[in-house]
From TrEMBL:
Coiled coil: none annotated. The keyword S-adenosyl-L-methionine applies. It catalyses: a 2'-deoxycytidine in DNA + S-adenosyl-L-methionine = an N(4)-methyl-2'-deoxycytidine in DNA + S-adenosyl-L-homocysteine + H(+). Pfam families: N6_N4_Mtase. Residues 38-90 form the DNA methylase N-4/N-6 domain. This is site-specific DNA-methyltransferase (cytosine-N(4)-specific). Keywords: DNA-binding, Methyltransferase, Restriction system, S-adenosyl-L-methionine, Transferase. It comes from Leptothoe spongobia TAU-MAC 1115. It comes from the Bacteria. Its EC number is 2.1.1.113. InterPro entries: DNA_methylase_N4/N6, MeTrfase_CN4_CS, SAM-dependent_MTases_sf.
């Protein structure tokens, strides 16, 4: 049986608004979603749009293989659907996991937090002149002046009290702290991560944290009252290029996801401050280990042993784009490390996505429908990368049927002032025998 109408009048209005407004989180969607959210996350109403278009039922199983902070999976949970996700960034995986657990008592969650806040305020009153402590290795991972000394002291003191608590609400308190650390920091997201010129010498960290907990408690009360019967929801910590390691065979009906774009953005920077503070990354080696499990979308995550570009050697369009990038870089005399690696990062990106789509096939049920939110790029050296159409071609060569490429919105490239398309590539998996099974694209072998 199909679920009731998923899109409200306000959803339809959001999809009809300006392209900028289409990507904004509406007030009615803030519950749970806004506990922690990437600045570049796609909106819940877009997920509902495609769930409705795909005519999901209560038996539908939804997958987001690039789960991020859980937009698709949380929305699936709100609608009573079974949903799974894969996410390689430990901070995002943690946030998504917390947002999927609605079991705590809202009143007890807040009351325990009040006791922690009182103890932290007492301690801070006695420690006004102490220097906050982060290990030199951890501090080296942060932007210079990412957070000022006094706010950092407050964050670390609060974190110490949270870490010493034996409460089952421990994960919620840590997630709220991640939001409070960003609030207290000097970081700005527009959408690149940078340090603001004006630094915060102090911030009301404990008050902000308690407000976050209060919001969580309120959201839990509402969600538990309104949500239909709950199905299974889970997010796995892992590499989206290897979904077969986490997802059961022949189990997925719908995929709604937004992988990274080949846009020279290091997505680990977006979560770097809170990742360091919560201990998800402690040194450069730990950061590199995280990056090894990500699709290569930027030159800061390219390593000598990467070989995903093997998968796209038969694609002249991708090779030509990479060659154009490298030629233009040479003409302009750009010799920095990331400049020299960006052409290779572009090939690795599409190779990684091909690897993902190839390994995903055995996890899809016949008739599965897929939606990939991706964006064109032209921000680096003004070389145009039509991400959606290239991914569509790769998918078709892997046995998927291309249904359509929808325009979600256009966005203005911050460096070049060029309008770029953000699209939704719609695919169908028939489950019929495919001429592709594994290895480099270009090498055909029967199933």
């Amino acid at each position: 049986m199909a679920l009731p109408k998923l899109l409200s009048d306000s959803d339809l209005l959001s999809l009809a608004l300006s392209h900028k407004a289409r990507n904004q989180l509406s007030d009615k969607d803030r519950a749970i979603h806004n506990w922690y959210r990437f600045v570049l996350s796609f909106p819940p109403h877009l997920v509902r749009h495609y769930l409705q278009r795909f005519q999901v039922t209560e038996k539908t199983v939804v997958l987001d293989p690039f789960a991020g902070t859980g937009t698709t999976i949380v929305e699936g949970k709100k609608l009573g659907l079974s949903a799974m996700g894969i996410e390689a960034n430990p901070m995002a995986h943690f946030a998504c996991s917390v947002k999927l657990d609605w079991s705590p008592s809202p009143s007890a969650l807040y009351q325990t937090a009040e006791a922690i806040a009182a103890a932290v305020r007492d301690e801070l009153a006695l420690l006004s002149n102490l220097t906050p402590t982060l290990s030199p290795e951890a501090r080296a991972l942060l932007f210079k002046d990412a957070i000022s000394p006094r706010p950092l002291q407050k964050v670390l003191t609060l974190l110490g009290h949270i870490d010493r608590t034996s409460s089952s609400y421990y994960p919620y308190y840590r997630l709220a702290l991640a939001n409070s650390a960003i609030f207290a920091s000097n970081l700005r997201f527009a959408p690149e991560v940078s340090v603001a010129r004006k630094h915060k010498s102090d911030a009301q960290v404990v008050d902000h944290w308690l407000e976050q907990i209060n919001t969580m408690a309120s959201d839990l009360t509402i969600s538990r009252e309104l949500s239909p019967a709950q199905q299974s929801t889970v997010v796995h910590l892992g590499d989206a290029r290897q979904p077969h390691l986490h997802i059961p065979p022949d189990s997925i009906d719908v995929v709604i996801t937004s992988p990274p774009y080949p846009n020279e953005k290091d997505y680990t920077r977006t979560t770097r401050l809170e990742s360091v503070l919560l201990g998800f990354v402690e040194n450069k080696a730990g950061l590199q280990a995280i990056k090894h499990n990500l699709v290569r979308s930027n030159s800061r995550s390219v390593y000598s042993d990467d070989n995903d570009d093997q998968w796209i050697q038969k694609y002249p369009q991708i090779l030509e784009i990479a060659q154009t990038i490298d030629q233009r870089r040479a003409e302009l005399g750009k010799t920095s490390g990331f400049s020299r690696l960006y052409a290779r990062a572009t090939k690795l990106y599409f190779g990684g996505m091909a690897r993902h789509l190839a390994n995903l096939r055995s996890r899809l049920r016949p008739g599965a429908q897929l939606a990939y939110v991706v964006g064109e790029q032209a921000s680096y050296l003004k070389v145009h990368i039509p991400t959606g159409s290239i991914l569509a071609q790769i998918a078709q060569d892997l046995g998927y049927e291309l249904i359509d490429i929808d325009l979600f919105r256009t966005r203005r490239a911050s460096k070049t002032e060029v309008d770029l398309r953000e699209e939704v590539v719609l695919l169908h998996w028939s489950g019929a025998n495919s001429t592709w099974i594994s290895g480099d694209i270009g090498k055909k072998s029967a199933v």
